[in-house]
Amino acid sequence: MSxxxxxxxxxxxxxxxxxxxxxxxxxxxxxxxILIVVMNSMKTNTAINMDAFALPxxxxxxxxxxxxxxxxxxxxxxxxxxxxxxxxxxxxxxxILVCTSMAAWYISRVGDLFSKIVYYLCVFSMVVPFQMVMYxxxxxxxxxxxxxxxxxxxxxxxxxxxLAVFMFAGFVKSIPLSMEEAASxxxxxxxxxxxxxxxxxxxxxxxxxGVLEIMWVWNDYxxxxxxxxxxxxxxxxxxIQYLQGSYGHVDLGATMALITLSLVPxxxxxxxxxxxxxxxxxxxxxxx
Length: 288
Prior knowledge:
Blueprint: H1 8-40, H2 45-50, H3 65-71, H4 78-110, H5 113-125, H6 134-143, H7 152-172, H8 177-185, H9 190-201, H10 203-219, H11 222-227, H12 236-241, H13 252-283
Helix pairs in contact: 1-13, 3-13, 4-5, 4-7, 4-10, 5-7, 7-10, 8-9, 10-13
């Protein structure tokens, strides 16, 4: 009768199980705040103030009335805020993807002093805190008439260009130059070469950057608050901030309900696209 001893494989499996348990616990801690928000969106304001961590019961449960109150609060309709948020997010992301991918392609292929300066300026912009430039940015945006939902994507382009150019430039270096030379021999100009050959090959990084930019723009509060005219335009984060009554009273139930509504689309989008984030980042790290 043979006795099976614990070898290196058994130790490795035990270590994997331990790491899995640790990461499951960390995941639950990250999910807990979301569950608390959803739970409180169906409770009365008094119950939320008394115990925000308690489960709804027969006395505190109000169903979806908080959602109705939040969407009908005040004179500014919630659907307008949702439409502005959707447009700003999609337009800003599309503008960032197209412009920064072209800029990264130029920087990587030309490689002269000017392109290097532009590249390092984009990288430097990633470490500049928004608070350092927010007041100057707000005044400049008003002077240039960029304070509307139709023009604010240009402002987002400036702030989102740093990370996007950095990731795209790393990926372009991994694309064989011979493919672009073959397209040039076939008669393709620079624009046609980019959109017909290079741009489709950027799909992993395009999806990765797109996910990150959509999550940033959709949840952003400070930039629209400083730039947009609050009497005419509100995004969802700004709309939630305005759920206040007289004497500073806040409808916590309605606030939780609208936060839940704002989380649903971005969470679904992230769950569907999360596998592309790592793929896009690693694809851009093939060559330095």
